Structure formats: structure tokens, C-alpha cells
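Sample intake sheet
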Amino acid sequence: MSRKSFKAFTIDSVEIIDAASDGRGVAKFEDKKIFVEKAVPGDIIELYVYEKVKRLFSGNLIKIHTPSPLRVEAKCKHFGLCGGCKWQMMSYEGQLSFKTKQVRDIFERIAKVEFGELLPALPSPTPYFYRNKLEFSFGTRMYIAFEDVGKIDQNVPVLGFHGKGAFDKVLNVEECYLQLPIVSEILNSVRAFAIEKEIPFYNIKEQHGFLREISFRSSVATEELMVFLTVKEYNKAYLDMFFTHLEINFPQINHLLWIVNPKSNTQISELPSFVWKGQGFITEKLGGFSFRISPTSFFQTNPRQAETLYGVAKEMLKKVLPEGKNKHKIVYDLYTGTGSIAIYVSDLAEKIVGIEYVESSIIDAKANAERNDLQHLSFFAGDMAKVLTSDFIAANGKPDVIITDPPRNGMAPAVVNQILKVRPEYVIYISCHPATQARDADMMRAHYEIVTLQPVDMFPQTAHVENVALFRARKEPLITEE
């Protein structure tokens, strides 16, 4: 059946048997594998199948005949339309179980990479209000449910999250259970104020309008709140008006900043920020260490669970200490961000070298090492594949262990090849996307074996899972058949 000749059809009763890594439920009917939004494993449902791509089908839940024991009531009024919290309708115990299964399936069935032990996913201390950073977009066209098209005027100023598959439309978010409750209050207040004062919202298609994004960073340890505004161009009158409103109505905000982004894209990591109130950073604490976090610097978005994640990496590093030693000689921390992992494990190495591509993060990393009086840490900024060279390793020393925490797309092949060339005894690989982690593990399998996989739930209510893998160098390279 080709995609062109596909005809939609309804299945009166089918059971959801699994959960996919993108958050959809999975049903099987005859020889068909069907992915279903808002479906929970164990549900028996009526299903409308509307699309076929290659051998995979997509469907919408029409009616629940028998709800799954794992099904719960979603908290948020935007659930289903927003797409941010795809598993709000699943119990937290169920989420953890399927996140562990997701890691197993990726390594066993998809990548076919062998591993020693897979431990159960570690739960987050708080399943809601756990994030320390959120970004919301201003827009001029509202994202609405399909059934409301034609009934609601979409050409209005909006503030919230971009709709799925609709870059030019924004869902008007009135509540969000991911960050502090005050974030929702501020969001609703500034939306109404900006509309009243006729401050232009950004039109992403035509690329004009003053207000582009509003972002929030908060600290668990210090209870600081930072608000930074991304605007199309500098306009003192608009900025003063906007920030004065926030200062008067929300004295809880410690830091107010803005960033000018005249570009067509939303990438702001290389752009300077300007302070209207407070400082240009907030302070967070993990494991007794203090961290400075700038507006665009990377820092784990679930700080309470970051202690768990870093604790796993630290225990692995401790586990592989040379016999009779209490410290490794040299440890490399790749994709170091603000140096948080390097600092957290600093007592287990005589020297730690961190590398990160975002310059502002390295500035923070150096400041963080200094404020924690850690003189045996050094940090370097630049493209990982270009920095991590043989000359760099000759100058900074060969690592006993490499810790790597890359972005979702994993490590570049050149970085993997350089790790294989250096051949540290152990690699601790922290990943926010186990699929690319497994892909990299496949590239490393001839020279490394996986001792342990430890999933960590950094993002409750979503299908995303962090995974920490401990790799050990093989005594003899694995010979594979061509």
C-alpha cells in the first residue's frame, strides 16, 4: 500500500501494548504497527488510523473502552495541544518503567549493542515544577486545535510555545506545570500588558515586531529568579515600559536582562546580554559547590535531579579508581558546559580538563572553578572535533578517564575517533538522547564494552530519559565479521 493510495480507517477495539520513545502509545492490528497520541499502554481503545509512512501507521484515539491501570488525569489545561508533557496521562511509576524499557530496546533491539547491566530508571524528586529554565515565544498567529479552525480568530498577539509542525503559530499558554507557578503568573501579566500598551509581538514569517521571546531561569538553592527578554531591535521606551511593569508587579524577580536578536533564527548563545536590574547571572548549588549560570549558558534543567545524575557519574568514576589510589591522574570532561560535572567530581582527580563549544559557558566554568577554589581544573572553548586533537592531548596529558555529556545529536565521528585513538581505560558517557548514545557505542564497540547502563529521569511527564553508560576498554579489540 503506497502512501498515495492509503485510505484512512477505524479500528473499533484494540489494545495499546507499548510506549514509543516519542511519547505515543503503540498498537498492533493484523500486521500493522500503529502509533497513537495520548494513549497509555494497557488502554483498550477505538482508533482512527489517518496516515501511513513506509510500514508505520499513525492514529488518533477516538474513545477509551477500558482505561489502562497506568492512566491518570492530566493536570494541565493545555495537555494534548501543547505537546510538551506527552505522558501527563500516565502514572509516574509507569513512566519510569517505560523509560527503562526504552533504553533496553534502543541498545538491544535497535543498535544491537551488548551491555553488562541495565539498572532501573532513577526517579526525579519532584515530578512537577522541576525545571529551572523555560523559554516562551511571542507571535501573531495562534495555534489552536484542528476542530476549532474557523471558529476562533487566529490572527491575534500570542505568547507561549510553538505548535507542533507550525513554526509560525504559537499556543497561548496560560499555565505550565514545569517551572515555578510564578512563571505562569508573569506570562499572563506581560501578555496582557504588552497588548494593552501595543508593544509589537514578533511576526516570524514577516520577521518584524519587537517582542521575540521571554525566558526564565531560577535557582533552587538561592531562590533567585531571572527573566530575560529577546527583542528584535533596541528600543529604550519599550524596554523601560516592559521591565518597569515587571519590577512593580513582580518584586520576586531578582534579575532582568535583554538580548537583541536581529537575525532570522532564534540562536542567541553568541549574542551579548544587557542588565536592566540585578546581575547577569544566577547562582545554583550542587553537592556543596556553587555555580554561576548566565542567561545562555548550559546547565542541567532539573537541578534537584542533577545531583542524582552527577552522583551516578561520580560513583562510576570512584568505582574505576586505580587499585590503592583515591584519585585519577587526569580526567577529561567533554561538552563541559559551565563545568558542573568537572567541579562535582573534582575530588576524584589530580587534574581535570574541560572542553565546551559555547564561549559564555566556558567563562562561567572558569568563574565557577575559581569561586570553588579549584585550581586543578582548566577549561577550553571551541569546536570539540577541532580542539580535541593529538596536539591538545600531548599538551594537556593523556586522560585515564573521559567523561562526555554531548547534546542530543551525540558526538561527532571525529570526536569518537579521537577517543578511540587516545584509548582511556574508561569512558563515562552521559546522554540526553540514548539513541545517539547507542549509535556512538556501536562505533566504539570494537575497542570498548559497556559495563553499566543507568537511566535517570530528568524530565518527568515526558518520554525523554537521560542515560549514563560506563565503558571499559577491551584488553583485545573485538574482531567483527565484515
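Comment: The CA atoms of residues 243 and 310 lie 36 Å apart. The two ends are 35 Å apart (CA to CA).
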